[in-house]
Amino acid sequence: VTTKLISSFNNYAIPAIGYVNEGKLFVNGSLDERRVDLLRQWLKAGYELGNHTYSHPNYHKTSFENFTEDILKGERVTKPLSKEYGVSYQFFRHPYLRIGKTKSSADSLSHFLAHHGYTESPVTIDPNDYLFAKTYHIALQKGDTLKASKVAVAYLKHMEDKIKFYETIAIELFDRNISHTLLIHANLLNADYLDEIAELFKQQGYSFVSQEEVLRDKVYSSPVTKYGDWGMSWMDLWAMSKGKNALLRDDPKIPEFVLK
Q1: Rounded to the nearest 5°, which phi and psi values hold at 5?
Q2: Sign of CA dihedral 87, 10, 71, 122
Q3: The whole model's pTM is what?
Q4: Tens of pLDDT, residues 101-159
Q5: Rounded to an integer, what is the distance from CA 69 to the centroid of its chain?
Q6: Where are the beta strands (DSSP E) in the chain?
Q7: What does the DSSP 8-state code read for residue 56?
Q8: In a 3-state reduction of DSSP, which class is residue 197?
Q9: CA-based diameter of the chain, in Å?
Q10: Are 219 and 123 in contact (CB under 8 A)?
């Protein structure tokens, strides 16, 4: 999976960031060097790693103290490893896209992250790829290549629909399309079809740029003013903050056969 993903990043000059849950580097309480070697492979190729906490807790169900402790615990391997390879280590992505149920809790977390040298990664395109990936994996485990192919076709169609959906919201909110950040996971489905995903974006007129360049887009200074117990893309958060919840009604649905 790692080798295939890196190959696609290279083919399309995609400046990807790999957000790590460091808890998954341990087996029976011991650091598994084979898993660390996957991160070395990533860094050797020049791609960044980011902090995604140690154990992937839900900030909305975890105390601030425990959650921030988990963030610091989640940098013990990846931060020095990135330094060893001379690769920047600066971005944080929220587990479940939960940024805080209230303005106070969101601000507290933002201040903590800034104090510890992190920049939050504001995901704008979230295709819920993990649902397709699980269905794809199960189909291949059963040797059902026909079902796996059906899942892949549905996934690529869903990705295209999501791109267009978030473009529409961007134009409604900001009178133009914006620079986006795509969230996908390091799984077999994406490893097998990342070239096709990259082609989809190119067909829609996109080029691939760094997270730093994306964040230079002025829209990222737009405030989020609506908070609650949800995890969603920044496009959704901005729409709700501007009182345009109706825009979210057309969010493309996951095909029923995938959900089942």
Answers
A1: -60, -45
A2: positive
A3: 0.95
A4: 999 999 999 999 999 999 999 999 999 999 999 999 999 999 999 999 999 999 999 99
A5: 21
A6: 17-20, 26-27, 30-31, 48-51, 91-92, 119-120
A7: -
A8: helix
A9: 52
A10: no
